[in-house]
Specification:
Helices cover about 40% and strands about 15% of the residues. By secondary structure, it is an alpha+beta fold. The radius of gyration is 25 Å and the shape is elongated.
């Protein structure tokens, strides 16, 4: 029996070494996938916040329609910030369409949209062209992920 123990002495260390490599790779992949989902969630929240912010303003009065403030809210989480809420997000990725300017949304109507209760005006905010880069691109095998455009459309209350 003692001879068998001597031969089996390093088996546990070898098994640990063999099993730990796939476990570490799976953990790294799970971290990158969780970050991608979190980033998409942040983009969705930013779009909703921008549309909600703009829904209370009249777009026909340029001095009162704070498109730049809405873009800052979406980009930085506040009207005056310096660090984007999502790494890699830029102002160029954000587009706003409403009854005053629908050039970023060709073929769509935002003024006097017919409903069962009468016509309404809409505002649509979109983030497009965002690319997610994982922390460990070689290990997790995710590479870069290009998200589909994220948008929110809300009724303007004015």
């Amino acid at each position: 029996m003692t001879g068998l123990r001597r031969r089996m002495r390093g088996v546990a260390a070898v098994e640990l070494a063999l099993v730990s490599i796939p476990l570490v790779l799976m953990a790294v992949a799970a971290i990158d996938i969780a970050r991608a989902v979190f980033t998409y969630n942040q983009l969705t929240k930013a779009v909703r916040d921008g549309a909600r912010f703009l829904s209370g303003f009249d777009p026909t009065v340029p001095a009162e329609y704070p498109t730049a403030l809405a873009k800052n809210r979406m980009l930085y989480g506040s009207t005056s910030g310096s660090t984007p809420i999502v790494p890699g997000l830029t102002v160029d990725m954000i587009s706003i369409c409403d009854r005053a300017d629908a050039s970023a949304c060709p073929g769509e109507t935002f003024a006097n949209v017919a409903t069962g209760s009468g016509p309404i005006d809409l505002v649509k905010v979109t983030i497009s062209g965002y690319t997610f880069t994982p922390i460990f691109p070689g290990i997790s095998q995710l590479g870069t992920i290009s998200f589909e455009p994220v948008s929110a459309t809300m009724r303007q209350v004015l």
